[in-house]
Amino acid sequence: MSWDQGETPCIGTVALDDLFASAGGESVPLPGGELQLFRAPDLGAAPAELFTELHDTIAWREESISLFGKRYLQPRMLAWYGDADARYRYSGVSHEPLPWLPLLDALRARLETLAEAAFNSVLANLYRHNRDSMGLHADDERELGDRPVIASLSLGEERIFRLRHRHSKEIKPVKLVLPSGSVLIMRGATQQNWKHEIPKQTRPCGPRINLTFRRVYA
Fold first, then answer.
1. Going edge to edge, which strands form the sheet with 183-187?
2. pLDDT one-digit tens code per residue, 163-199
3. pTM to 2 decimals?
4. Domains, the chain, ranges and CATH?
């Protein structure tokens, strides 16, 4: 992963006039990539209930990463769950998976159906407030394969999800607001051609949980 920092105002909605409906979700036009947004899929329970249980049961921890030879505390809390062999390494940190929680396993099954893909792991991120963020990066580690399918579930506070093309400054960034209970699926060459981030926000916002389900290869 490669990381940048940025900020954006706390915006309630972002209009995307070029969003259009497709079977099973909304396809987001993305040159050289594939995005599909499900705004309110059946998750088996209300988003608020899922947020509360996950907030209280996931083994959240703070973690540092290596950037340009220095260690920095990441501006959020996280946890890695998955099958026993789903080991994952990025930014100088090796992740040994925790065993699946029943709720995480149940959500995995539902998102596998939405994405039409099999997942063996999930990265859970807790954004505690508006100053927590995820820097600009691509999920392009070798362990994920050449064209990974990643299903991202958002719960809690709405946050801006911003994508920036990796190779062309002429292509405008894409911004989405991810509602609580929504699922965003990235597939195809998205990680090869785009980076994405959750920027810091200038106005106070409540906590958000993001679960990104993926398949890690040995």
1. 20-22, 25-28, 34-38, 183-187, 150-156, 208-214, 121-127, 77-82
2. 999 999 999 999 999 999 999 999 999 999 999 999 9
3. 0.85
4. 7-214 (2.60.120.590)
